[in-house]
Design goal:
The protein is mainly β. It has one helix and 14 strands; from the N terminus they run H-E-E-E-E-E-E-E-E-E-E-E-E-E-E.
């Protein structure tokens, strides 16, 4: 008798699960609603160019992009084809470009994605290439945990990631660092 009750209970639960599955919409094709207000930006700007200056009137950074979209719900900014120029003491110091970027926390954290290229504009002629790069502009920090290649006139360095401080001019390579160096001819 106990076995029969357990089988009846299991069968009843099975039927309820199947009915819930179909009535609950899990088996139906429900398209994503891309026109929902939550998925639309509250504003969009094409072909932008902007400059930020400090209290002394010196340029801190400039940005150019094909398109910028702001999403109020998440307070995120999505940027297409950004080119960011960082300044130090009023002079161009680094130029960073990517296919896309996302800014969060009132521009305190900027994530660059796809074909990221950072190039020093001061005499060192350094060029950094990676798939993604995160920057904290107010702290002068750049970092990534994706493979990186740094080119210089005398060679290149490859690493699984890096941390850099643009104000101090330091770069720390993280994991499996390999490099070549050619001694310059006098």
């Amino acid at each position: 008798m106990a076995v029969q009750n357990n089988l009846s209970l299991a069968g009843g639960l099975f039927i309820l699960c199947i009915a819930g599955y179909y009535w609950g919409g899990f088996a139906k094709d429900t398209p994503l609603l891309t026109d929902a207000p939550d998925n639309l930006p509250d504003y969009s700007i094409s072909d932008i160019s902007g400059t930020q200056i400090n209290e002394q009137g010196q340029v801190v950074r400039q940005i150019q992009a094909k398109q910028l979209e702001h999403f109020a719900e998440t307070d995120e900014i999505h940027i297409s084809s950004p080119i960011v120029t960082l300044y130090q003491q009023g002079q161009e110091h680094w130029r960073i470009s990517a296919d896309k970027a996302m800014s969060r926390q009132d521009n305190q954290l900027i994530s660059l994605e796809n074909n990221v290229l950072a190039q020093s504009l001061q005499g060192s002629n350094l060029r950094l290439e990676t798939a993604s790069l995160t920057t904290e502009p107010n702290k002068h920090l750049l970092y990534t945990q994706t493979p990186v290649v740094v080119h210089s006139p005398n060679g290149e360095i490859r690493s699984l990631g890096l941390q850099a401080n643009t104000e101090e001019g330091t770069i720390n390579f993280i994991g499996q660092v390999r490099g070549t160096y050619v001694v310059p001819k006098p």
